[in-house]
Design brief:
Largest sheet: 6 strands, mixed
Radius of gyration: 22 Å
Low-confidence stretches: 1-9
CATH topology of the largest domain: Rossmann fold
CATH architecture of the largest domain: 3-Layer(aba) Sandwich
Helix content: 25-40%
Number of domains: 2
Distance between the termini: 47 Å
Structural class: alpha/beta
Number of helices: 11
CATH class of the largest domain: Alpha Beta
Order of helices and strands: HEEEHEEHEHHHEHEHEEHEEEHEH
Strand content: 25-35%
Number of strands: 14
């Protein structure tokens, strides 16, 4: 079987099965099961220490799992050849480039390494950033280096592009330019074959760019859904209780319950609206009011619930 035929057989770009990674006593990945299909932007979300960096290192073949397996573009990630690596783009938070070279020299070096290089894509993306070919890398701002890295990664025409916290440390203007360049290229009908895995802690970014969410906690995938689907599964209630209020076990599907300025703020998952309202009234709530749920509130409540459950299990 040739490398060119592998992806035609398997439309799933990334698949992990029973994958775990242990560093001494620490379990970084715990039976991690992920399937990412071809196309779109898939956001990987999790708190620090959730296992995201370890996952990327294994997918890129820089590390090996303790148990289980992973495939990238249909090939075992532990056996990626130089040709297969040429089909994968990677941009990390550091945006490391050779500081003694100019932007033009770095670009020409990258262009020579990738036979599928698309100059039109490079020109389109780099146009969002104030980078001239004769500028030394050492003289570029963090945002300009981020733009140069994104431009080169997209121009390589990768089938898989991994973006690991690419806007970390960027100012508002640079971040806006980066996201607009990414979205413009991803929605261009002539360049829509790249599958993007986007890792970020910034929910406003995720809400703008992501087609699909993969929420990982303690090395396990907890939820997979589109941003809209996830928000639709969660209802947010604000109400008053004459007494101290209910205990956690009295509200089915409870994710979080906080008292803010005397009012109870309650997040519930996978429960009919009428059922939640009826339950709160039965527990003594004074006319519960349903409030809008944004992605930031939804994800934070899910992560807080999983963190609380993990602490109880210890």
């Amino acid at each position: 079987m040739t490398e060119q035929n592998i992806q035609n057989i398997n439309e799933n770009i990334i698949v992990t099965k029973g994958m775990s990674k242990r560093f001494g006593k620490k379990l970084a990945l715990d039976n991690c099961e992920i399937t990412i299909s071809q196309g779109g932007i898939h956001a990987l979300i999790g708190a620090n220490g959730a296992g995201k960096s370890t996952l990327f290192r294994i997918l890129l073949g820089f590390d090996s799992p303790t148990t289980g397996s992973s495939t990238v573009l249909g090939m075992d990630s532990q056996a990626l050849t130089p040709q297969m690596r040429g089909r994968i783009g990677y941009v990390n938070e550091e945006h490391t480039l050779p500081t003694w070279m100019t932007a033009g020299e770095v670009t020409q070096m990258q262009k020579a390494l990738y036979p599928q290089w698309q100059q039109a894509i490079y020109d389109s993306v780099i146009g969002n950033f104030d980078v001239e070919p004769d500028q030394k890398i050492s003289g570029l701002s963090r945002g300009e280096r981020a733009g140069l890295n994104l431009s080169m990664a997209l121009a390589q025409s990768p089938e898989l592009l991994i973006l690991d916290e690419p806007t970390l440390g960027l100012d508002v203007v640079a971040k806006q330019a980066f996201l607009e360049a990414l979205m413009h290229t991803e929605t261009d009908s002539s360049n829509n074959t790249t599958t993007i895995v986007y890792c970020s802690h910034q929910m406003e970014e995720i809400e703008r760019v992501a087609d699909n969410l993969i929420i990982i906690e303690k090395g396990q995938v907890k939820y997979t859904a589109s941003p809209d689907e996830l928000c639709e599964r969660i209802s947010y209630w604000i109400c008053n209780f004459e007494s101290a209020g209910p205990v956690d076990q009295e509200i089915p599907g409870l994710l979080s319950m906080k008292v803010i300025e005397g009012q109870h703020h309650i997040m519930v998952i996978d429960q009919p609206i009428d059922t939640v309202k009826s339950t709160l009234l039965q527990l003594g709530a004074d006319e519960p009011v349903q409030a809008p749920v944004n992605l930031d509130k939804a994800v934070n409540s899910l992560l807080a619930k999983n963190h609380k459950s993990a602490k109880k299990a210890k």
